[in-house]
């Protein structure tokens, strides 16, 4: 007699591993070596920040000023790339030059990357405190590449924080995917979810009921959800069970182990149930209260500094 009993199936959603400022846990952030080593380690995607210099070069840097991460001083916008920023290095060892975005583009278009690492993409984080003119300069730069390297339309995701940037980005980058990056689920739902391809929100914003709701809503609308900055393996497990589409963190090796290898190793419903039941990161009332307060603070900050 044939046994028609079928093993119950389970579905597990494997998020992308997105290297925050490159493999920044082991390399100076936002540098070419950080991006290169993230790709060598096996990351799914990259993430990096851009700033505009006084002479309108697009510089890879997170902060408004160069003070924290480099041997330079002062706001990026008040210094020329040529003759100043091009001569400074990172404070973090090994000292690295501060790249421009075109240096990163030159890396991405290399055949071993664009063809050998199919599916690799990069989120370009354009902070809200940039001058909006950075979008025009970015458009001009990308136009010099995309005619010869149209694969960049798939390799790059344009990340924006506010409505003003969104409106202009939709006009300037119609062939690129757009990503809302922000602190507030309310802002994501009210202004962005229907106008972008991705939502990128901090872990705290997704930890509550409203955060879980926005993940489901985004997936219903065929949008993808990323979360940041995830460096705790327990948080990574929680993110997998939330079914987010991308986990952004500093340590590519740790993320790959906990976001890819561990969930992919599950072979039965029982193993999956054990995996899910061992997710205790938010079990503590104190921790849930902490994230609730953080979420409220982020919503206020989003309204005060970003206007949404």
TrEMBL record:
Q: Which domain of life is it from?
A: Eukaryota
Record GO terms (molecular function): phosphoric diester hydrolase activity
Q: What is this protein called?
A: GP-PDE domain-containing protein
- One biological process GO term for this chain? lipid metabolic process
Q: Which organism is it from?
A: Mucor circinelloides f. circinelloides (strain 1006PhL) (Mucormycosis agent)
The record's listing under Pfam families reads: GDPD
Domain (GP-PDE): residue spans on this chain: 15-259
InterPro entries reported in the protein's UniProt record: GP_PDE_dom, PLC-like_Pdiesterase_TIM-brl
